[in-house]
Amino acid sequence: MLDLADDVLPYPPSEADPDRRGKPFVASVGKCFQVLKAFRRGQTELRQRDLGLSEICKLSGLDKSAAQRFSETLVTLGYLEKDPGTRRYRPGIALIDFYYTFMVSHRLAQIAMPILIEASKVYDTTVNLCEMEGTDAIYTVRIPQAKASYGTMLAGRRVPAFCASPGTVMLAHMPEDEADAVLAASDLRKITEYTLTDIPALKAQMAEARRLGYHVSDQQSQIHNVSTAAPVLLMDGRAVAAVHIPGYAPQWNLESVHEKLVPLAVDTARRISDSLTDAM
Amino acid sequence: MLDLADDVLPYPPSEADPDRRGKPFVASVGKCFQVLKAFRRGQTELRQRDLGLSEICKLSGLDKSAAQRFSETLVTLGYLEKDPGTRRYRPGIALIDFYYTFMVSHRLAQIAMPILIEASKVYDTTVNLCEMEGTDAIYTVRIPQAKASYGTMLAGRRVPAFCASPGTVMLAHMPEDEADAVLAASDLRKITEYTLTDIPALKAQMAEARRLGYHVSDQQSQIHNVSTAAPVLLMDGRAVAAVHIPGYAPQWNLESVHEKLVPLAVDTARRISDSLTDAM
DNA sequence: ATGAAAGTATCGCATTGTGATACATAGTTT
DNA sequence: AAACTATGTATCACAATGCGATACTTTCAT
């Protein structure tokens, strides 16, 4: 039995944040999102798609009454579904609406999509677009390949920025103080035995990524995965995203990745950068 | 200038609903989602990605104070972003999290994904998976093609069930009273000049779809689009989803769609149905 | 300059959410 | 079966919290 709870989640979510102090904040809204987030934790920590009320309590940090109020509210709104038999809750299909709301107005994704699709056909590989959010890189566009695993096909996945190639490359092409702040806020724990966790080594790696214009991560976030990333840059040199192409063993190794996937990633990222600046 | 507002959205969202009466409901939560929904309306009705506070008021039905409170709350939580210069709000990247939360636990999508990818390669076409939500068909999985338009690549898009082939085919394979209820609740307005809007004609069309096991819609929801859909069925014959393959003119016409896309859609849907029942 | 419209801040009131408690139901163990 | 435990549901008095009218500030058009 896993021990949940306790690292009780960032709530109340600000009053700590510098420039959010004093802004109006409706606590109930924060709590409802704690409930929705509980399902994500439930999936990673408990490996189950549906949660009972008491599990929601533990994972959200809310008491029983609150958990019930918010869960039922979310059911009424369609964002959770409730199995009448088991009385357990699960994510509702209406949640997809917000993905659409975000993506449909996301110019970067719109521009990148056809270019990424083309790129995926070159070697029949998965190709992803990543963007920074806090200390994570989030996959926003993924062009899937039939043989890939389901989890690696889904947009919305998060990976700690410090230990994955898209993160490295975005941190590298970012004002240094911002990058430092991200590293400082990151939970620097080893994901695999190859994960770098000390700041100087990470900064050296970032410097090299900046120099080369790409980064190859050798099993630092996943065993048997040598993955490449190249930055999508604005004219001022800031990275707004990264193109990420994973290469899985045994099909790909460090050498073939350098020979084939690196140029592809760099070129794809550059084409996106160009289209982006043209469009402005 | 479009007149917005007024059809002030279904709020308070239940007390009307039969079996949701008396369930605890936190009004603030409902209102925060009104704000998020406002962005979707803003995109379709105003064609703009970001909204000012007063636009949020109109589109959400909230007063100025409430709109501000909830918008700022959502900014603090990361679900909206605010441009400091223009003071306008736009959807935040964190919204993607909920897509992931839903999809990662969605067995149907997991099973369907590789099968849909295979299908998309046969004629290099877009292939979609749709599911019912209220009176709409929602696209939950989409395998994009480079030449397609961005809007048709995004999961989360909704189409009224009555006038699109995936909807027709799902309604057809549904207990009749449920299908009738959906039609009754639908806003039966012509989308194109070919849209059927009278119930008997729609029911005849559904009957034929049930008989054939697929449906081809000829420009009923979009001009120059002849699209095919076939139902994904459980063992009891109920549809849980539909495979949808659009065929755009001039590349595709009614004849070539029948010859090629119909068998592909039917076969793909059947393979998903089989995998689904195997997995249980 | 002037005015209108949009955005932000303030604050007393009472509505609304709160959470302790009690009750009901499901699932397990003896 | 009965007894027990855990989990889910309902109730309710209190006051904290969200409410929204008002006033203030900024921005943009004229």
Describe this structure in words.
The structure is a homodimer of 280-residue chains. The first copy, chain A, is an alpha+beta fold and 280 residues long. In chain A, 44% of the residues lie in helices and 17% in strands. In chain A, a hairpin with a 5-residue loop joins strand 7 (225-233) and strand 8. Chain A has a 6-stranded antiparallel beta sheet with strand order 5-4-3-8-7-6. In chain A, strands 1-2 form a two-stranded antiparallel sheet. The longest helix of chain A is centred in the last third of the chain and has 25 residues, at 254-278. Chain A is built from 9 helices and 8 strands. Chain A has 2 domains: 25-94, Arc Repressor Mutant, subunit A; 105-277, GAF domain (Beta-Lactamase). The termini of chain A are far apart. At the A-B interface, helix 1, helix 3, helix 4, helix 5 and strand 4 of A face helix 1, helix 3, helix 4, helix 5 and strand 4 of B. Chain A binds a DNA duplex (30 and 30 nucleotides) through residues 22, 24, 26-28, 52-54, 63-66, 68-69, 87.
Q: Which features does this protein show?
A:
two-stranded antiparallel sheet; homodimer; Beta-Lactamase; 280 residues; globular; alpha+beta; 6-stranded antiparallel β-sheet; DNA-binding; Arc Repressor Mutant, subunit A
